[in-house]
Amino acid sequence: MRWGQQEGDRALNDTAIILQRTFRQSDIVARVGGDEFVVLTIGAGGKETEKITARLGRNLLNHNATRNRDYKLSISFCTLYYDPQKPRSIDELLAHANNAE
User: Fold this and answer.
1) Torsion sign, CA atoms 88, 94, 95, 100
2) Angle, nearest 10°, between helix axes 47-66 and 5-22?
3) pLDDT in tens, 80-93
4) CA-CA distance, 6 to 55, in Å (whole number)?
5) How confident is the model at residue 1 (pLDDT cuts 50, 70, 90)?
6) pLDDT value at position 83?
7) Separation CA 34–CA 100 (nearest Å)
């Protein structure tokens, strides 16, 4: 790793803070391994998803603009809608999200 484990841990912590600032207290933010996070937003769809995406972008830009680091954080993501009429397991949803990247 170019910057070392300590800096990697700092980047993960910064990412968690950005996600925490972006999403609501009622949403679930979880680190599922390595540098992968999953967010479950309850009742968000359509326009709300667009607002969340814009807020995430602003929070990421603000973070990068205010930190004096040799790197910039970036986040790749996809959004999925859980349809209760066509239930899928968490594993199926995560596999679908990984394939969508």
Assistant:
1) positive
2) 140
3) 888 889 999 989 98
4) 28
5) low
6) 83
7) 18
Three-state DSSP at 6 gives helix
Q: Please count the structural domains in the chain.
A: 1
Q: Please tell me the distance from the alpha carbon of residue 55 to that of residue 62, in angstroms, as a whole number.
A: 10
Q: Which amino acid is at 46?
A: G
Contacts of 93 (CB under 8 A, 6+ apart): 80, 82
Question: Structural domain of residue 35, as residue ranges?
Answer: 5-100
Q: What is the DSSP code string of 40-76?
A: E-TT--THHHHHHHHHHHHHHHHHHHH---SS-----
Written as six digits, the tokens of 6 are 């300590």
Of the pLDDT bands very low, low, confident and very high (cuts 50, 70, 90), residue 17 is very high
